[in-house]
Write a structure and sequence with these properties.
This protein is of the alpha/beta class. It has 14 helices and 14 strands. The protein folds into 2 domains: 136 residues, Aspartate Aminotransferase, domain 1 (Alpha-Beta Complex), CATH 3.90.1150.10; 226 residues, Aspartate Aminotransferase, domain 2 (3-Layer(aba) Sandwich). It is globular, with a radius of gyration of 24 Å. Bound molecules: pyridoxal-5'-phosphate. The site of pyridoxal-5'-phosphate (PLP) has 14 residues, from helix 4.
């Protein structure tokens, strides 16, 4: 009966429907290894066993009880949102609001150079489409956030790492960056401040990088999603933002995901600046890319001016939380002499993460497994961010402070026990 030949009652179409489907040849770029890794299995096991877990890696602000964002959702009800009249680069008032957001920080951003996107991730994708052919490469900082690997893969673009130097406050290794740039390099990515190191670029390094980009025909793609979250006054030698800079073709990325802790609204942007001819040519092409997708929803664009204008209390609440949690972590470490001697919380200037340098009595997977199995604490291994070597754990700082403080104490006690066992 499985020959596919029609029986007396069957039509030919029905017989074809019974045939097994021919395999589909999916694009090789999607041939990812999607099997569960060891750490994921440990987590599944812990959840199955009904273990209460505290997720120190939580970076979704909508799950961290930031009450200040709730009233902003009501701003999406503007009646003009009933009409669909899309403009590729975005609603003019929304683009002007983004420019104002920078201008209020003293940065010279022109609304004409603002492109709205659905997210920062989408902005990266559009910029890779704009700048790179299949097989071209972009330079990316290491350590940093691992998002780019997939975005580059989806555009058939390669990533070439350039190191940040830990002992120099994660300063860019400019010599290594220049050596890494080859014939097919099209852009340099900066995450500013970097995730998870929380480091801002030095002003003199920024200027040297711009000179290098200008000379070699490279664009700068600067991810500033955490730009509003400097923990205190930045040291004078650090650059607060690349927005509006004119030396090299510069694309500054950000969006509501971090600026307003509203990732679910799906609105990001690119602020384009640079030598005027280059910036204008980039905008012309970006407009076509944006027109192809028209991906930003109308209600959120209409609400953007009001939403951005309401950022101060949201950002104040987040910064206060991040500082409180960091202080709780430091206090927990300081309270245990053995831990204080052996564990270092690396300095951070901004962002929502802290990195612990831990003794290598376990490797990073070993630490993470131990903490999940024995304490119900989820932390990131440093290798997730391509740390320069083994021996780092990364924790997020967004959890509600009482939860964070209790978990930090447990973390430190477990580190202490492991140190005395080891
Ligand atoms: C450094 C960095 N860039 C970009 C993103 C993604 O932002 P979006 O939600 O706008 O795509 C994240 C998300 O955590 C991030 O940490």
């Amino acid at each position: 009966m499985s020959s596919g030949r029609p029986t007396t009652e069957e039509t030919g179409a029905e017989a074809r429907d019974r045939l097994p489907p021919r395999p589909i040849r999916f694009a090789a770029r999607t041939g990812w290894d999607l099997s569960e890794n060891q750490l994921a299995s440990v987590l599944v096991e812990a959840r199955r066993a009904g273990r209460a877990l505290v997720d120190f890696t939580e970076s979704n602000p909508t799950r961290c009880g930031i009450a200040e964002t709730a009233p902003l959702i009501a701003r999406l009800g503007e009646p003009r949102g009933c009409r669909y009249a899309p403009l590729p680069l975005g609603d003019p008032a929304a683009r002007a609001a983004v420019a104002r957001y920078y201008q209020e920080r003293g940065l010279d951003v022109d609304p004409a150079g603002v492109v709205l996107t659905a997210s920062t991730s989408e902005a990266y994708g559009w910029l890779l489409k704009l700048l790179a052919e299949r097989g071209d490469d972009v330079l990316v900082p290491v350590p940093s956030y691992p998002l780019l690997e997939y975005l580059a893969c989806l555009e058939d673009v390669s990533l070439t790492p350039y190191p940040l130097l830990k002992e120099e406050g994660w300063r860019i290794d400019l010599g290594a960056l220049e050596r890494a740039a080859g014939e097919r390099t099209r852009a340099v990515v900066l995450v500013h401040p970097n995730n998870p190191t929380g480091s801002f670029v030095r002003r003199d390094d920024a200027a040297a990088l711009e000179a290098c980009a200008r000379e070699r025909g490279l664009a700068l793609i600067v991810d500033e999603v955490f730009g509003d979250y400097a923990h205190g006054d930045l040291p004078a030698d650090r650059l607060p933002s690349f927005a509006g800079r004119r030396q090299a073709l510069t694309f500054v990325l950000s969006g509501l995901s971090k600026v307003m802790a509203l990732p679910q609204l799906k609105l990001g942007w690119i602020a384009v600046s640079g030598p005027p001819d280059l910036a204008a040519a980039a905008m012309e092409r970006l407009e076509v890319i944006a027109d192809t997708y028209l991906s930003v929803g109308t209600p959120v664009q209409l609400a953007l001016p009001e939403i951005l204008a309401a950022r101060a209390p949201v950002q104040r609440a987040i910064l206060e939380r991040v500082r409180t949690n960091l202080a709780a972590l430091d206090a927990a470490i300081a309270a245990r002499a053995t831990v204080q001697r052996a564990v270092r919380r690396l300095p951070v200037d901004g962002g929502w993460y802290a990195t612990l340098e831990v003794p290598r009595v376990h490797d990073e997977d070993g630490w993470v497994e131990l903490l999940v199995r024995e304490e119900g604490l989820i932390v990131h291994p440093g290798y997730f961010f391509d740390m320069p070597r083994d021996g780092f754990l990364v924790v997020g700082l967004l959890l509600e402070p009482p939860v964070f403080a209790a978990a930090a104490l447990r973390l430190v006690h477990r580190l202490e026990r492991a140190l005395s066992d080891g």
